[in-house]
């Protein structure tokens, strides 16, 4: 799902190809352009922007403001690099402003409605399917404030491709659809994609053994104990408690109400889903042991036997149905009701799910629905007071603004297969809530915490050079972007947006701002999805639109 959060990793979190650069991005093209005195065009990107200005009947320099949220140092710095790059041309006069997070999101959510003259720096957390990257930001049904289409971009062919991609079940056909869609979005450039960030966890080598960083924000603690994925973590000492951190407060225990990465991270070991996504994006069994498509609208799931909730109640198909139907009318309704029609309980451990429409990423979607007891749906258990799942850890205590604590579930269903012990080697997992990055670093260095999920990238060199620490990093399932006020001239002209996109110093941003952490992004889908971001496809996009 696409969602948002605060801090260093916050992101706003779901045709025929037109001809190249309109015949403009070629050597000698400057002879076709007349500029007013004092305006020099030094690159093909600037020529493209100026052509867009002419078509919009706008004279340079164009005044605008680039915004970032004040809490995110990395984002502020790359916003300023973009500001300076634009100001170095004769085409723009760009101011820079920061807002605290709540005010920033208010600006972003309402910029189109208010016709704000604003460039904004944000990012999508996409997850494991391309639909989660393109629908939220680009479909005309997803305008802010209820969706994430921040500039109210609208293109009929984009809508058609997004709808076609999500309802197509053949993977090869989906690849073709999403390649056309990505190229059109690069050509139209309602957003310019800048970087696929890395997910980074730093831990003490003398305290932690076997930890792996998961690519999706919100699942940072998955490798503590994931038996179906064949991974688990041990303490390298004789202790029984792993102490990690969280960068902000935990807002909600309830899956239908949680909307931030930290809440997902805190409850990730507590809840389980029918299916699970491995570190490489492959689908694995979890509470479902077998599943298959009966027809385009029907899936049957065989459920794991011998599973019980932390209350001691047995897990059955009735809990699955109640969980799915609980999303109706909730803040997270779209996570389920874009595809869910109904469910038939065929037995305690068998269920058929009927879809509203053919849905290509059904397995990925199911893997994002934490199963809760039917007692939560019928109101006999208040999950907002005490969260209950089937996971390997159970809720112990929560002291708001201080800590979150889980204890190993001694009655977890795992039998010790797949190279993972029958019970979690770590008895207690505590997340200390530490909002300041300097305090998090100090706590890690003194041993007050064993691992951290949120230090600034400028800290990486010091820890990578120290044998007492392990820096574990992987490309994340997210994309950072620059958003345009495409509802007003001259940014309504795609040539202007595309030209700015060519001026963005992507590699410099990664090296100078993020200490080398991340991958240059030109398209909206993270390179973790190699099926949909094939190197040859990306090379062609770069050659045609960014060279």
Describe the 3D structure:
Helix content is 28%, strand content 22%. It is of the alpha+beta class and 547 residues long. The strands form seven sheets. The chain has a six-stranded mixed beta sheet with strand order 2-1-3-22-4-23, sandwiched between helices. A four-stranded mixed beta sheet has the order 10-19-18-17, covered by helices on one side. Strands 13-14-16-15 form a four-stranded antiparallel beta sheet, with helices on one face. Strand 11 (275-277) and strand 12 form a beta hairpin. The longest helix is centred in the first third of the chain and has 18 residues, at 171-188. The model is unreliable at 1-32 (pLDDT under 50). Belongs to the bacterial solute-binding protein 5 family.
Write the SSE topology.
Blueprint: H1 44-55, E1 62-69, H2 73-87, E2 92-99, H3 101-114, E3 118-125, H4 131-138, H5 156-167, H6 171-188, E4 191-196, E5 198-204, E6 208-209, E7 225-226, E8 231-232, E9 234-235, E10 241-246, H7 261-267, E11 275-277, E12 283-285, E13 288-295, E14 298-303, H8 317-325, H9 334-337, E15 340-347, E16 350-355, H10 362-366, H11 374-377, E17 393-399, E18 403-408, E19 428-433, H12 437-446, E20 451-452, H13 460-464, E21 469-475, E22 478-483, H14 494-503, H15 506-513, E23 519-520, H16 535-545
Parallel strand pairs: 1-2, 1-3, 10-19
Antiparallel strand pairs: 3-22, 4-22, 4-23, 5-20, 5-21, 6-9, 7-8, 11-12, 13-14, 14-16, 15-16, 17-18, 18-19
Helix pairs in contact: 1-14, 4-5, 5-6
